[in-house]
Prior knowledge:
2 copies of one chain form a homodimer. Chain A is α+β, with helices and mostly antiparallel strands. Chain A is built from 7 helices and 7 strands.
Amino acid sequence: xxxxxxxxxxxxxxxxxxxxxxxxxxxxxxxxxxxxxxxxxxxxxxxxxxxxxxxxxxxxxxxxxxxxxxxxxxxxxxxxxxxxxxxxxxxxxxxxxxxxxxxxxxxxxxxxxxxxxxxxxxxxxxxxxxxxxxxxxxxxxxxxxxxxxxxxxxxxxxxxxxxxxxxxxxxxxxxxxxxxxx
Amino acid sequence: xxxxxxxxxxxxxxxxxxxxxxxxxxxxxxxxxxxxxxxxxxxxxxxxxxxxxxxxxxxxxxxxxxxxxxxxxxxxxxxxxxxxxxxxxxxxxxxxxxxxxxxxxxxxxxxxxxxxxxxxxxxxxxxxxxxxxxxxxxxxxxxxxxxxxxxxxxxxxxxxxxxxxxxxxxxxxxxxxxxxxx
Lengths: 182, 182
């Protein structure tokens, strides 16, 4: 079967296409930016994005959104992780977490799938902690401050893709689609 | 003449209605939440919000969005001021600014007006600095950490409304509408 992934990010598309292949799914790339509404949580934002986009696009498609959620910061930077990274960055996160004991955090990825009629969401989580300093040079974004076990995501390289929030969300989604095809 | 202000915030509506009255404008309140897209700046967000909303509402209307922009933090919290306030709050802003010499910041308000055909934006700014501690108990949001001259907005009370970014944006907008009516 074929599915269409709407994203302007080539790296995301390639990672997803590789995982999809394992399910016998051929992924098509719809390379475009779309309107992302503001919202109180990622599920809501992904769902609204897909609903708005479904008025523009023909047929079925899915999109993905993700973010870092720090428990002691009430979920900040959460839905606005990308804007926060571009402004205060990892230095900002470490500063906000100086002396804070509870360092629990998670990455969340949400997929919103428009099946031609309705939007369904699927999510994946990677739970870890905020480190006390930046470590590692692989990956991108918040990877250097996100501890998963004893390593940060930026120290893990390829291993990260095996346990990432995005992979979990994609696997949940692809399994659903294969079970419900036809 | 009459204008419709779309906002779910009664305080904002009342302040605007009072200023409008000074221009001989009667303000109608359309109390509703609307979809606010994410975007790189407030103008873009306000404009897109109005464009999306213009497909739903009949006739002319305007809406308003505002935020705090801190120069040393690359404009953070900017378009996401309200989310950032709900999570890391004023304590977070002070922490991020600890030991930072350049404390320049401004409040920006943007009005997007749909005139039945096109969307136009109007803006107002209040320039000041981030204080080193919270001061004052009036106002709301970032007011206790925003120094305007020697006082914070939270120490100013009524005076603040005379020089606020929102008032400036509303005055620019109402002047435009009065010049171009008919």
